[in-house]
């Protein structure tokens, strides 16, 4: 059976802003609130929630985090052609 994951992310234009938001999250800031305020992705309105997806549905750099790195930890900044992402995998099966 193919893997499925659920993740949320914050997409911003600069690595500097992504790093600052990551530091804010580490200090206890709410990921969803920061996504609603800062993310340039339409998913920002839903707190960055991307729902469920399978490998290959997202760009490779994104997939590498979601399907290979630690679950529930905030990873990034991850650069893609869209900008800089902070990515949190909620679960993976």
UniProtKB/TrEMBL annotation:
Which Gene Ontology molecular-function terms are recorded?
peptidyl-prolyl cis-trans isomerase activity
PROSITE patterns per record:
PPIC_PPIASE_1 (PS01096), PPIC_PPIASE_2 (PS50198)
Report the EC code(s) recorded for this entry: 5.2.1.8
Q: What is its main location?
A: cytoplasm
Q: Which GO terms describe its cellular component?
A: cytoplasm
Which of the seven top EC classes does this enzyme belong to? isomerase
What are the protein's UniProt keywords? Cytoplasm, Isomerase, Rotamase
State if Cell membrane is listed as a keyword.
Answer: no
- Could you confirm whether the keyword Isomerase appears in this record? yes
Per UniProt, residues of the PpiC domain are 7-91
* Family, per entry: Belongs to the PpiC/parvulin rotamase family.
Give the matching NCBIfam families. Answer: PRK15441.1
Question: What protein is this chain from?
Answer: Peptidyl-prolyl cis-trans isomerase C
Say which species the protein is native to: Thalassomonas viridans
